[in-house]
Amino acid sequence: MTQAINLILSVLTFLAQTFLLWVLVFSLISFNNVRKIAAQFLSEKNVILAAFVISLLATGGSLYYSQIAGFAPCELCWFQRIFMYPQVILLGLALVKKESKIIVYSLLLASIGALISLWHNYIIYISPKSTTCSTSTVSCATKFVLGLGYVTIPLMALTAFALIIMLFVGQRISIKK
């Protein structure tokens, strides 16, 4: 079961990274065309719904890995969770109440979470000699998952945060004239 979940989440991560890269390259080539496309698809409701689904998948994957697969989260994983888990509630409420002002708060949470996740990925991919996270007994350099030969849990988190950020920033750019 865990291998199947790893594969699914790794493939979703790869697809999300491919999409992020495509948006970045296309933005550099033709920013005005990206703005036009974004204006068609990135309504506040669509962006909040997409961010809600992303945060729900990230939270569900995180809980699966710790509660079912038995992977103990390191200290940096806990901090990333602090900035991802509330997104499910905030964005869910925003959908129900049709409240778009939550985007600013969600963007802030995602940005802080992405910075923590970026540091965690640095430890895993670049500086694995950092074996512990201050008081944590689990090494921040531990790779519980290595999907598709490179996808780790912190990379999944970074990708989710980056997607949420891209959606919200893209939505704001699309509405500016």
| SSE class | mainly alpha
Look at the structure and give the mean pLDDT: 90
Measured as a percent range, the helix fraction is: over 70%
The largest β sheet comes out as: none
State the assembly state of the protein chains.
Answer: single chain
Alpha-carbon Rg, integer = 17 Å
Alpha carbon gap, first and last residue:
49 Å
Total number of beta strands = 0
Order of helices and strands: HHHHHH
Number of domains: 1
What shape does the CA trace take?
globular
Report the uncertain regions: none
Beta-strand percent range: under 5%
Continuous helix count: 6
Structure description:
The chain is mostly helical and 177 residues long. The chain has helices spanning 2-29, 31-41, 44-68, 75-97, 102-125, 153-175.
Short description:
This protein is mainly alpha-helical. It contains 6 helices and no strands. Helix 2 crosses helix 6.
Features:
177 residues; mainly alpha; 6 helices; globular
